[in-house]
Amino acid sequence: MLMAGVDVGFGFTKASDGESCVLFKSIVGEAQPRALNDEFFSGQSLAGSHLTVDGRSYFIGELAESESRVRQFTLDQAQMVANQFRLLALAGLTRVVPSRVPLNVITGLPVGYYMEFKDRLSETLMGEHELIVHEGGERKDVTLTVNRVKVIPQPYGSLVDYLFRGDGTLLRQDVARQKIGIIDIGFKTTDFTVCRELRHSERGSRTTETGMAKAFQFIAETLREMSGVNVEIYRLYDAVREGSIKVRGAEYDIAKVKEEVFSRLAAAVVSDMERIWVDDWDLDMVLLAGGGGESLYEYIKPMVRGEIALLETQDDPRLANVVGYVKYGRYFFDGSPGNVDATEG
Ligand SMILES: Nc1ncnc2c1ncn2[C@@H]1O[C@H](COP(=O)(O)OP(=O)(O)OP(=O)(O)O)[C@@H](O)[C@H]1O
Ligand SMILES: [Mg+2]
Fold this sequence. Notes:
By secondary structure, this protein is α+β, with helices and mostly antiparallel strands. Helix content is about 35%, strand content about 30%. The strands form three sheets. Strands 3-2-1-8-10-9-5-6-4-7 form a ten-stranded mixed sheet, with helices on both faces. Helix 9 (about 290-300) links the parallel strand 16 and strand 17 (about 310). Helix 2 (about 75-95) crosses helix 3 (about 115-125), helix 4 (about 155-165) packs across helix 10 and helix 6 (about 210-225) packs antiparallel against helix 8. The protein is globular and about 55 Å long.
């Protein structure tokens, strides 16, 4: 059975079939009629998709960011599940799986919202989805046939990616027997999870709102004071990485404010960690994951005693969860030796 993972984050949507991965910003916008249908230069086209779903046309990802007049971008979990999740997930899946081939899908939720929304997510994805994909001036009818859905807490994707091989068998037997804490720092949320001998610990699992968006919001405010222009936070990634931004022709240096807010954010994550894991002083190792995990690793590392590692198995740290989802699918749906859950849905 074909397997695909989709990780719909507040910052980025990622999808993978285990071979290829796609990643685009989690933004949904109204499709705009194009006056000019030709590309004049053969440069790279924008990441994202143009889809028609249930008779309505949408721009998704970077395409929506740059072309849609009306854009939806949310930092609210209930709104994400109700409005954007389906479109973002379908946009991701159509890029990695063929039409009409039945597939099993693995997706995730922040640990703190897992129980509340997991059934809704499954229902949203199950069954046949008829859509039109618009690409290079052409329309392609696509039917996505979702056979089964498994929803897991998001940071488990990263853990599975670290512990398992691509075929769903265990790679790091020794680590799997240990007690591991995972911190997945995303755009909006930071997820804390503790896992001992692959058993989930409810006590050590929590979702906080301390994501990278906090830092971006602060930088955007500073920028507004300096330039008088309101820059949307999802347009700040590249500027923050480079340490400077051009607004209406003037160059602004944001390296210092970045340094300051990143180290404050790192301190907030570490203090949340100490509070949430106050009884879990016997952790063998802490794994840092998510796109924010990479950005904050150098700041967090000196603040933590004991072993701490950055999950670096992928070229892009944001992809660890979705790559782990596919591995988990192979383990869960295909079944591996000793997997008693293999026949459950
Ligand atoms: N090339 C990059 N472009 C943009 N952001 C990047 C890049 N590399 C790392 N990042 C960091 O990754 C963060 C997003 O991480 P990630 O994709 O894990 O979040 P998310 O899953 O969308 O959010 P959440 O888990 O809160 O829903 C950004 O805020 C940024 O700090
Ligand atoms: Mg995430």
